[in-house]
Amino acid sequence: MNKDCPPSSPVVELRNLTLKRGRRTILDGIDLSLEAGQSLAIVGPSGAGKTTILRLLAGLELPSSGELFLFGQRQDYLRLDQWRPPDVRLVSQNPALLGSLSVLQNVGFLLFRHSLLPEPEIRLRVARCLEAVGLAGTENLMPSELSGGMQKRVSFARAMIDNPETESETPLLLFDEPTAGLDPVASTRIEDLMVTTTHLSRGSSVVVSHVLSTIERSAKQVALLYDGKLRWQGSVDSFRSADNPYVVQFRTASLTGPMQPQEL
Predict the structure, then answer these.
(1) Which member of 28, 107, 126, 249 has the greatest number of CB atoms within 10 A?
(2) Nearest 5°: CA angle at 236, between 13 and 74?
C-alpha cells in the first residue's frame, strides 16, 4: 500500500475534471467521488459523457484539465515514475474474450502471464470464479462453443480473479451498459452477477446504464450527467423520489424536460 495514500482516501475522485475533443467539450468541470466498498451508477441520455468517465477511470483517455485520483493517487499517465497502475477492471458490453484461448486461459490470463503462482493454484482460482458465475466445468471450452450469455459470464469471472502476489487495494470494477439489449430475465441474472462480482472481489464499482432495474439493483449511489455536466447526485433511495427536473425526466422517460436530443 502506498504510504502517501491515507486509508480514508476515496477510491475515485474527480476534481473539476474536463475533457475536450477538438472544439467539443465532452465533460465539463466534473466533481465526483466514490468511497471504498461503494457502488455508483452513472446515468443520463446518450452522449452525456457517461462512458467517457469509464474510459478515463480505465486509463484509456486523458483529461484535458482538472485532476483524477484513484485510491488516493493522482493519475499522471505520462509519468514514467508513477508508483504503479491501479487495480481497475473493465467489463464492457462486448465480453471481449480472446477467441484462440480456452475459458481457463481467458479467465486466468493475467495470472498465467504475470504471476509466479503454480498452474494448479491458478486452475483452482479460475474454477472458483467460474463456479461463482454458474459456469463450473467449462474451463476447456473455447469462446466459440459458448452462447453470448455464457461469454458475458466468463467476462465477469475474469473480473473477479486477482493476483495474491500483488499488494494492491481492493479493485475498482467498471461496468459499461452490462444489460443493454437483454430481456428482463437475462438482465436480472447479469445484475445479480454484478453484485456478486463486486462482493467476491471485495471491490468498489461504477456502472453506466440506462436501465432502471440495473441502477436500483446494482448501485447505492447515482450521478446523472447531461451535456457533459453533473446535474444531480445522491443515493438510490433519493433518486426514486427526487424532484430535480433532470432526474424526473430520466426516471419517467418523458419527452418534456431539460434534456433534449443532442446535435451530432
Answers:
(1) 107
(2) 5
- Per CATH, the number for 1-85+220-264 is 3.40.50.300
For residues 42 and 230, the answer to whether their CB atoms sit within 8 Å is no
* pTM (2 d.p.): 0.83
Gap between the Cα atoms of 60 and 186, Å rounded? 29
Residue 79 confidence (pLDDT): 52
Q: Is 44 in contact with 250 (CB distance < 8 Å)?
A: yes
Mean pLDDT of 11-25: 93
Residue with cell 445479480: 192
Q: CA gyration radius for the chain?
A: 19
**Cα separation values, 1 from 27, 35, 85, 231, 250, Å:** 31, 17, 12, 35, 40
Residue 65 CB coordination number (10 Å): 11
Which residues, in sequence order, are bridge partners of residue 226?
229
The three-class DSSP label of residue 97 is coil
3-state DSSP assignment of residue 48: coil
What is the full DSSP assignment across 161-198?
Answer: ---TTS-PPSPEEEEESTTTT--HHHHHHHHHHHHHHH
The tens digit of pLDDT for each residue in 107-116 reads 999 888 878 8
Domain boundaries, the chain: 1-85+220-264
- Using one digit for the tens of pLDDT, what is the confidence trace for 139-187? 999 999 998 888 988 988 888 887 776 655 678 999 998 887 778 887 8
DSSP 119-150: HHHHHHHHHHHHHHTT-TT-TT--GGGS-HHH
